[in-house]
Amino acid sequence: MTTSIDGDGLAGLTLRVRTPVSGRARAAELPPGLQKYLQTAEASLAEPFKGITTDGRVVPGLFQLGTTGASTRPIADAALAWLASLGAEQQARVRFGVDGDAWRRWSNIHPFLLRHGVSLDEMSGAQRDLALALLRASLERGGIRHGA
Prior knowledge:
mainly alpha, 33% helix
């Protein structure tokens, strides 16, 4: 479904009307477009991992490991502090093996479909502070601003 907007110089602009869905919990019933997205994702996850590809062919050596000269100690310390702040049930939700499919389930779309882990809403203030400290330690200087 689409709707047209008139006024304020927006004449002729057509917007898609979408069913509102939560970013915090998976809806019991998803709109058809999100159902298809989820089915496609689940089908892809059922296939063995090949590597990084955009057209079905793996690009060998795309990301080489190498020394950058930057210390990862601040990131590791921040991660350990955050993990130590979590309860046993929360830790079980945020820790997973590197060979598991949890990392393949990450999705950067707003609706809650393939999420895992613990959301900022579920954390105490102290846990959120430690999670954001981990984010700050992980980003380049200038990658996070206070109050933004």
